[in-house]
Give the backbone structure.
Amino acid sequence: MKRKIIFSVFAFLLVAFTFSSLLYAEPGSPTRLKDNLFSIDFVNETHGWAVGYWGTVLATRDGGETWVYQETGKEKVLASVDFVDENNGWAVGYGHTIIHTDDGGKTWSEQKSCEDIFLTGVCFVDTKKGWAIGEWGTIIHTENGGQDWKVQIATEDAILYDIDFADPMHGWAVGEFGMILATVDGGKTWNKQDSGVENVFFSCQALDSQNVWLAGIDSLVLHTGDGGATWEKADTGIKKVIPFYEVHFCNSNNGIVAGQGVVLYTEDGGTTWQPSLFDANIDYIWLYGMASTTGGTAWMVGERGSVFKSTDNGKGWQAIQY
């Protein structure tokens, strides 16, 4: 029974996304389901990857002008992707799936998780050191690029949804019931921080060892400027209650928060927020993953294979066709 309860939120997202998928096909090309995308990562202005349902990996090497499908040999949900350079990247997902590439995604190989759990997030600080998270409050870690994974903590009957490190020592993981776990020693020890709420957190981003942003259900955005000793709610100005699935800052001033049919941006470090402008209707699109590069370029993915690009730190967005 616990296993059914613990998957309630994420399972709902996956099922809802599945039934809203659209079928697209190019003449003379294999039919592909343009399915829901959950995560995106760019390592520079040109090289990026997005992952989602049915083991989908999309890649670009020209700044999003063209996208190609990369074969992974997997048909399970990929929930998160993280690259450290143009060659080395990892993706994790359903059924304790961990896949790795060292050639930019031309080939992907499976890595063995030390735990039989649904993995929801992954973060690497270099080609050797990385972390992955999932159900049961579990955080696993590798020191050798994923050849071996070991459990660092697994103490709670709750799903962790996101993890981010500001540097090799300082990291945060967040999830259900307002859970915030933090480390200052590279994961040797993880300690709970008091969020002051019991909401589900879907996203976290560590700008440095002191400044961290979180986003979650019920239009919630939290920020700490003291490494998590205290957390404050950000006033985004939004009146309706929706889930925020992602918060992402391009730099210390320019940030973006996205959720169910809503995207907001800030230019003053989160003091004030404004609605972003789109060249397409996003009212009924669930927006999930974000990434950014230098020069104000930001990327976002979500339901029905949606890919959006911004060239002004999230103020305006254009839909990308692929």
Remarks:
- The longest strand covers residues 37-42.
- Residues 60 and 67 are 5 Å apart (CA to CA).
- Residues 1-31 have pLDDT under 50 and may be disordered.
- The first helix runs from residue 2 to 6.
